[in-house]
Write a structure and sequence with these properties.
Blueprint: H1 16-21, H2 24-51, E1 55-57, H3 58-62, E2 76-79, E3 91-95, E4 100-107, H4 114-135, E5 138-145, H5 151-157, E6 167-169, H6 170-176, H7 181-205, H8 207-223
Parallel strand pairs: 1-2, 4-5, 5-6
Antiparallel strand pairs: 2-3, 3-4
């Protein structure tokens, strides 16, 4: 998991979070938190690439395309994919001997609005057709919501834009590329604790916010 303490955030009073709270310092903390949420997805991709024994940069794979059917590897997890007409997937998984593959987009969240879901489906569908044409194999696509338990949850979260055939749970994706799903989830919990402690410490480091918290706690204790 990415760490809040390592994010920059926005310090100025024009930040959306600063305006929401009317407090630039508190706005910075929430801005850093949002930056952490965004970077967590990229970090997850890097972890999967480092853990899978089948990882290969797409640029290193290109020269092998003419002899794809003769490759000895049973599976290739291709990453650092190129941007094609402003569209880019996270992974292209290829099974050379089976002459098929799948373009995968990884998400940490589980709920997406209709516009976002439509855009993801259009983009992945386009990329699947592109790689199918380039590689001369059948390529499908899937959205992987890493922390959900079932494909049905992904279908619901994407407003049925992605059916079960085009959905992958994180556990399924990890099994596919031979990565220990439980190990990754457990390892990221350490950063969750660090993020919580950092967030609380920073709140208490703000004198005015600390006084407000202490006052509210005192009031609650009196009421109890």
């Amino acid at each position: 998991m990415a760490k809040i303490r390592e994010r920059l955030g926005r310090k100025d009073e024009l930040s959306g979070y600063a305006r929401v709270f009317g407090h630039p310092e508190l706005g910075l903390l929430f801005s850093k938190t949002q930056a952490c949420v965004i970077s967590a997805g990229t970090e997850l991709e890097k972890i999967l690439v480092s853990k899978s024994p089948h990882s290969l940069k797409y640029n290193d794979f290109v020269e092998r395309i003419p002899n794809l059917s003769k490759l000895s590897q049973p599976l290739l997890l291709l990453y650092d994919l190129p941007t094609i007409e402003k569209k880019k997937g996270d992974f292209l998984i290829v099974w050379p001997s089976k002459a098929n593959g799948i373009v995968v987009e990884i998400k940490e969240g589980d709920t997406f609005d209709t516009k976002k879901s439509d855009g993801e489906k259009e983009s992945l569908g386009f990329l699947a057709q592109h790689y199918s044409r380039i590689l001369g194999i059948k390529v499908s696509y899937a959205l992987s919501s890493f922390y959900v338990s079932t494909r049905e949850q992904i279908k619901i979260g994407t407003k049925s834009r992605f059916d079960n055939e085009h959905a992958l749970t994180g556990r399924e994706l990890c099994s596919m590329i031979e990565v220990n799903y439980a190990e990754i989830v457990e390892a990221r919990k350490a950063d969750e604790k660090d993020n919580l402690n950092y967030f609380l410490d920073k709140m208490l480091d703000m004198p005015d916010i600390r006084k407000m918290i202490e006052a509210k706690l005192s009031t609650r204790n009196d009421n109890d």
